Amino acid sequence: MPLLQIFAARYRVGTIAPSHTAVRSRTVEGALRAVGQTFASLGYKDPRLQASGKLDLRLHRQLQSYNKADPPPSRVKPIPLLILQHLITECYRTPDPIHNARAHMLTLGFFFLLRPGEYAATSNPDAAPFRACDVHVLRHQVRIDAFTCPEVDLQSVTHIALEFTTQKNGVRGELVGLGRSGHPLLCPVFAALNRLKHMRLHNAPRTTPLYTVFSTHAGIPQTITITTTELTQQLRSVCSFLGNAVGLQPCDISVRSLRSSGAMALLCADVDTDKIRLLGRWRSDEMLRYLHVQALPIIAPLSSLMVRHGFFSLLPNHPIQG
C-alpha cells in the first residue's frame, strides 16, 4: 500500500505521468485502476482493494484530498444560436462544397445532439460515423430512396431519420427522425438532403460517411473529410468576434459543444427532459452535465416565479397541546 501511495503522489505531480505535467485526481485514480487490473489479469489480488472489495481507506483519503485540491472542471459550454447561425450562413455564401459540407455537418450535429465522431472525422478508432445509407428520407409516412428517385421528389421531403448501427447508446436498427425546422438554412432536412445529393452526384457508395466531400483541385478529383479539428477552429473563429455578445470566449467552446447546444435549446423551449434524453440517447442523469444553469432564459424568470408561488402552508406535525 505505501508503494501505491507513492506511485499516486508521483503521478499526481507529473513525475511519472505520460504528460509529465500535474494531473487531476480522476487521472490518478485511472492510473491506480490500471495497476490493479494488471494484477487481477495475472490472477493476483488487486492491491488497491480491501477484503470487502472496497478501495483501501488510505488510498480513498489520498484521492479525496486530490479531488478537493483540483481546480473547477473546465466543461465546454453550449453555443448560442447566434454564433452557430452566423457560421452556417457564411459557409453557404460560397459554392465551395467543402464549406457547404461543414454547414451540413454542424447542422446535423446540433439538431440530432450527436457526438463529434458521428458527424465528423476524428482520430478515435471507436468512432461510428453516420453513413449515407443510414439516412432515411420520408415524404410524410412514405419512404423515398434518395439515390434512385427523381431529384424533383426530394424537394417535397418532409422528414429525415438517422438509423443507428454501432453508435454509442443507440439501439441497432432504431430510427430517430426530425422534420423541417422552418428556417431556410438551419434545418436538418435541408442539410441531410444536400449531403445525399452530393453523394448521388458523385456516385458515391451508400456506405460513404456523411462527412465525405468529393472535390476537384486543378482538375484532379479529391476525396476530403470534414474533421472535428477544423469544425472547432471555425466555431472558435466566429466566437472570437461574436462571443462577447453572448458571454463566451473561444476557449469555452469546441465541436463537442454542439451536443449540449441542441440540448440547451430544447431546455430553453421548455421541452420535457425525458424527450431531450431520448433524442440525445442519454440513459441516465448524465444529461445534466451538458446543461448549464448560466442560460438566462432558464434562470432569469425564476425569481419572479418564487415570489408568485412562495406562499404555501405545511401540514402540522407537532403534538397537540391540551
Report the structural category: alpha+beta
**Major sheet description:** 4 strands, antiparallel
| Number of separate strands | 6
Strand order of the largest sheet: 2-1-3-4
Q: Give the C-level CATH assignment of the domain at 81-232.
A: Alpha Beta
What's the mean pLDDT score? 86
CATH topology of the domain at 81-232: Topoisomerase I, Chain A, domain 3
Order of SSEs: HHHHHHEEEEHEEHHHHH
- How far apart, in Å, are the first and last alpha carbons? 63 Å
Low-confidence sequence ranges = none
Protein model, in words:
- By secondary structure, the protein is an alpha+beta fold.
- Among the domains are: 68 residues, no CATH class; 152 residues, Alpha-Beta Complex (Topoisomerase I, Chain A, domain 3).
- It has a 4-stranded antiparallel beta sheet with strand order 2-1-3-4, covered by helices on one side. A two-stranded antiparallel sheet has the order 5-6.
- Helix 1 packs across helix 2, helix 4 crosses helix 8 and helix 5 packs across helix 9.
